[in-house]
Amino acid sequence: MKVFSNIPDIRRQRWAEPLVTWGFVPTMGFLHEGHLSLVRRARQENDRVGVSIFVNPTQFNEPGDLAAYPRDTNRDLSLLKEEGVDLVWTPDPEIVYPPDYETFVEIEKVARPLEGAARPGFFRGVATVVAKLFNVFQPQRTYFGQKDAQQAVVIKRMVKDLNFNIEVVVCPTVREADGLAMSSRNANLSPPARQQATCLYRALLAAKDLFEQGERDAEELRAKMVAVIESADMARLDYVSVAHPSALEELTVIEDRALLSLAVFFDTVRLIDNMVVES
Ligand code: PAF
After folding, report:
1. In terms of pTM, does the model score above 0.85?
2. Which residue in 39, 198, 199, 234 has a CA-CA distance of 20 to 30 Å to 147?
3. C-alpha of residue 119 to centroid of ligand 1, in Å
4. Could you tell me the distance, in angstroms and rounded to a whole number, from the CA of residue 277 to the centre of ligand 1?
């Protein structure tokens, strides 16, 4: 496994064998089974696998959140090596954003609600860095988790609109045994908050249950999710949503499919989760 910080080194390695296919997994490090499931899928579907580890400053609107983001590059690299990854980019922030940097990618409608509304500038930062990562690696396929459902929709929109010749593969959310979706942020939960954090998954399951009993009033599903979150005394609800899975507009009545999603704070740790329901 080759590990580089500079762009010319990544490009040289990427193009050393021009005819092989590359799968690419962008990450912010502190890897868990969710990331590794993306790497394994990339490994199955491509000749070579590239991974980036970069905590992208432009997608954090709270400096405290950026500083608190967990990091352990040595551990990440040994996990990636065990998975048979070929190439890893670990750039310093000045390589990605030199002092004279001034270009950003902005996606409109699908980036506005949900995470976009809760975290202004978040998707501008994500889309910008992902566009740069795509340009550096130039993979045939890229792998994202369903856990960040809106991010996957936004990236697919960007790939289509900017004519990136890349297939975006969205892989299922990987969960802990008790249902908590895997996230690097889980490491920052206190032990009692970690116990209560299963309320996100329980809220989604409760709403899914209602849907499966025939409820199609989106507001009833939202109310159910709110009630489950409010039953966890350490949880502070940010939003709940029942939206169209690709347009991401809030629904009044569910026709055949809906994306249930929510964001919840435990102290300063913000967790998100989602589930698609369909009849
Ligand atoms: O999902 C993430 O970890 C990040 O948003 C990504 C895609 C690596 C961009 O920084």
Report:
1. yes
2. 234
3. 14
4. 25
